[in-house]
Amino acid sequence: MRNISTFTPDQLQLSKIDEVVFYKRDEITTDLICCDVSIGGKVWFFHEEATGWDTLIDHLGKLPGWRSDWFSSVSQPPFAECRTIAFQK
Questions:
Q1: Between 9 and 31, residue with greater pLDDT
Q2: Region label for 28, one of left (φ > 0), alpha (ψ between -120 and 50) or beta (otherwise)
Q3: Can you give 35-48 as a three-state secondary structure string?
Q4: Are the C-beta atoms of residues 84 and 73 closer than 8 Å to each other?
Q5: What's the rounded Cα separation, in Å, for the pair 20 and 66?
Q6: What is the mean pLDDT of residues 63-79?
């Protein structure tokens, strides 16, 4: 798994993305929304506190068939993983 602390759109070509999965990690007092982007058998890990998160979400939202309701699916209920596939080829 690759961890990216910052994101720029040229790092993830939309045509190469196989799957995008959102989920939450229980951080004791809060939840951390995370995103795994699969490309060619490799997984890129992102989270909402990383620099470029908003840019990442805008970029991924251009995928065909993107599940635009991913946030409501992953955010409730609190402290549950709520794994949600937002895109899959």
A1: 31
A2: left
A3: EEEEECCEEEEEEC
A4: yes
A5: 9
A6: 91
For residue 76, the SS3 value is: coil
CB contact at 8 A, 39 and 16: yes
pLDDT, tens only, 21-36: 999 987 778 789 999 9
Note the helical H segments in the chain: 53-60, 70-75
CA distance 74 to 69: 9
What tokens were used for 21? 């999965």
The pTM for the full model equals 0.86
2-3 and 42-47: which strand pairing? parallel
